Amino acid sequence: MEGWFQARAWQPRRHQLAMLDEARAGRHALLVATTGAGKTLSGFLPTLVDLIEHPAEGLHTLYVSPLKALAVDIQRNLLAPVAEMALDIRVETRTGDTPSDRRQRQRVRPPQILLTTPESLSLLLSYPDSFTMFAGLRTIVVDEVHAFATGKRGDLLSLCMARLQRIAPTMRRVALSATVADPDGYRAWLAPDGDIDAVSLVRGEPGADPDISILLPQDRIPWSGHSGRYAAVQVMREIERHRTSIVFCNTRSLAELIFQDLWKANDQGLPIGVHHGSLSLEARRKVEAAMADGRLRALVATASLDLGVDWGNVDCVIQMGAPKGSSRLLQRIGRANHRLDEASEAVIVPGNRFEYLEARAALDAVEAGELDPDLFRPGALDVLAQHVMACACAAPFEEQGLLAELRSALPYSALTDDLFAQVLGFIQDGGYSLKAYDRFKRLTRDPDGTWRVAHPKFIVQHRLNAGIIVEATMLGVRFKNGRQLGRVEEAFAATLSPGDTFFFAGLSLEVERMDTEELVVRATSRPARVPSYGGSRMALSTSLADRVRGFLADPSKWPNFPDDVREWLEIQSRRSVLPRPGQLLVETFPREGRHYMVAYSFEGWNAHQSLGMLVTRRMEAQGLKPTGFVSNDYALACFGLEPITDPASLFSPDILEDEFVEWVQGSSLLKRAFREVAVIGGLVERQIPGKRKTGRQVTFSTDLIYDVLRKYEPSHLLLQAAWDDARARMTDVGRLANLLDRAAETMVHIDLPRVSPLAVPVLVLIGRERISTSQGDDALLVEAEALAAEAMAE
After folding, report:
1. Count of other CB atoms within 10 angstroms of residue 307
2. Rounded distance, CA 337 to CA 343, Å?
3. CB 118 within 8 A of CB 468
4. What is the DSSP string of 507-555?
5. Percent of the residues in the chain that have a pLDDT greater than 70, as a whole number
6. Which stretch of DSSP H or E encloses residue 677?
7. What predicted TM-score, i.e. pTM, was given to this entire model?
8. Which of 309, 270, 375 has its CA nearest to residue 143?
9. Which range has highest mean pLDDT (340-354, 411-425, 612-626)?
10. Mean pLDDT of 232-258
11. pLDDT recorded at residue 773
12. DSSP-derived pairing of the beta strands 443-445 and 501-504
């Protein structure tokens, strides 16, 4: 090992040697080190040293990553030193993309190092031979731990680690991350039984400060938009100046649009690609290999490449639109140079004037070392039900023994006897309202109290359907010759007919025919739409929102801004006011026969969408005749036919007790949440042997069960889980509650004779969601200029 370092004129870094010391002492460890500091080698170095000193067959180390692409990339980079040192060590990956014959062989003859994901690990633990396979496990390495520890995938991984610790009591737990704001929170999450003192914290050496710039347009920063598409030509010039660039987009739809825009501006015909999670495995692997080999000048990507992927040729990262969080920006910047002692170069392309301020806030946060907060919460019940079923598939279990094992995982440390009994009862027969149906009777209890799977068919069903990521139902996209391009959501496909065109995989495609499972397409040059994908937008972090508020309230900072941004804020301060930190500014004004109310709450698009639905319901109850609302990350605008004279009454906290509950129960929100927890909890299967159900079939099944439970068993375990999801994830209800709690004391209401400058970015969005063509964008641009002229006139 020392000779290998010397041959490259390398020296192990201090934190790498510290991780080796922790391993020799048999201690669990959390490494927090900047990107490019050699975190991956830090995690694997103890394993390589141990296998060199004590060669052995069998599984030694599990490496768990949040992304399939990251696991493949780590394998590629790890195989090189193993080969160069001529080590007799096998390194393999196991993900959903691994062929079935290899998966079977891995259970019989596992490699010494196995790279996998939480879902694949959970499946391995559902087999009886898992007790043999993992008996000699020495280490589990959780890479990019921040990416999933606080969510449902983290719940599943925590439960899996609890099971592994029972199988291999001496197993060490190791976690790696570059962006951890609360190390102690992650140490508790990583530790058996939440014992924070059992986990050492190792900090990496500081690296070079990143070189981040904000790209300004050649004329003026747009009033609205969140994509930065206006700067495609300038972005292409940045790509030409650099060796290899990654262009990050916040959504899959935007990635397709940006790729098309860049291709039109690609006068030199440089090789560029696109990468996101809906593309086929073949397409993703193709561009990943091309990037690794240095054959691409640029790759347009989403969060599918956020984490850890190490391509040495990348020397610039371009963020289209604001990053929405300092931690995410740091992760993406880290894809450039990937060396500790060299500054990573990054360019942010703000989509509008608010996003310019957000980009400046992100730069300041990065410089100050401020990361986005990590929010831990109790473990999800649907995940718990899935894991208990996996344990039962592996072997019968005794109730109190399994309960003690589950409680050793931090997210479930407060699991009560009663709640665990409810989980077992749900898996046993579906619950009171469903126990008459044999297909829900997955567990049975023997006279001695031991729990076991009721029939082997339920084991097959579990392994076919287990998983935490429940995507919207997708349809395959392929050419007539059989070449697969990827998948689009069923809801988008339902809007297409033969002859329609859409952008996908970097191509303009025309639908030739379609059925319930796939679209058959051909390439075309006709104008096209972009597929829409469900799911929430990335929420603006509270720390960046606070920094933007600080900019608004501090005129001494304004001279540092571009002239059009400075002028925008100066005229706003004369025409109305700018909210100070902690204030809720609400402006009301008439315009073209309608009355508007704009609340500048800075709680993110997701929270504002939910608040808009609630506020317009209350407006209707007050006779204000609402006609709609629009929102962005910074503001919510509601409009109607009657003037709003008392906005405080629309923001009272009881809106979450009255309108919120009524709205959620009356909308499809709770049904969508139930659909997800029913699939994760194993109540409804997506796949049966030899066939995958269509989205309509799954929806029909879950909606039918949902209606039965709502009517006859409203306290059912999965309805509880669905409510938790609807409140916490789908509506950002925590941020809403904080806003409403402080609204009465902090609200500043300004009644204006006409639209204010600060309102322009959100009002321009009215009607935008109905327009997706370039002609529509041109029309909206004209409308924005007219609205801005009215607002900015002194």
Report:
1. 25
2. 7
3. yes
4. EEEEEEEE-SSEEEEEE--S--B-----SPPPPPPHHHHHHHHHHHT-G
5. 88
6. helix 669-680
7. 0.81
8. 309
9. 411-425
10. 90
11. 38
12. unpaired
Residue (of 162, 157, 130) closest to 403 by Cα position: 162
Rounded to whole angstroms, the Cα distance separating 666 from 659 reads 10
- Residue 638 has a pLDDT of 94
How many other C-beta atoms are found inside a 10 Å radius of the C-beta of residue 270?
Answer: 15
Class of domain 2-203: alpha beta
Report whether 231 contacts 366 (CB < 8 A): no
Written as one letter, the residue type at 620 is: E
Residue in 233, 228, 259, 246 with CA at minimum distance from that of residue 505: 259
Q: Which residue has the tokens 């951890």?
A: 180
pLDDT in tens, 719-777: 999 888 877 655 577 788 888 888 888 999 999 999 999 999 999 888 654 333 344 44
Beta-carbon count within 10 A of 305 CB:
26
pLDDT per position as a tens digit, 171-195: 999 999 888 888 999 999 999 998 9
- Predicted confidence at residue 95, as pLDDT, reads 83
The CATH superfamily of 211-368 is P-loop containing nucleotide triphosphate hydrolases (3.40.50.300)
* Beta pairing class for 518-523 and 507-514: antiparallel
Q: Which amino acid is at 116?
A: T
pLDDT exceeds 80 at position 264: yes
The residue length of the chain stands at 794
Domain ranges of the chain: 2-203, 211-368, 474-523, 576-664+732-792
420: left (phi over 0), alpha (psi -120 to 50) or beta: alpha
Q: What is the pLDDT of residue 590?
A: 95
The strand pairing partners of 94, in sequence order, are: 116
Query: Alpha helix (H) ranges present in 681-773?
Result: 695-712, 717-725, 733-746, 760-763
Q: Do domains 2-203 and 211-368 have the same CATH topology?
A: yes
The dihedral over CA atoms of 468, 472, 473, 478, expressed in degrees to the nearest 10, equals: -110
Pairwise CA distance, residues 576 & 750, whole Å: 7
CA 375 to CA 675: how far, in whole Å? Answer: 25
Does residue 716 register a pLDDT over 50?
A: yes
CA-to-CA distance for 640 and 650, rounded, in angstroms?
A: 14
Q: Identify the CA nearest to 55 among candidates 29, 86, 16.
A: 86
At 68 the pLDDT is 63
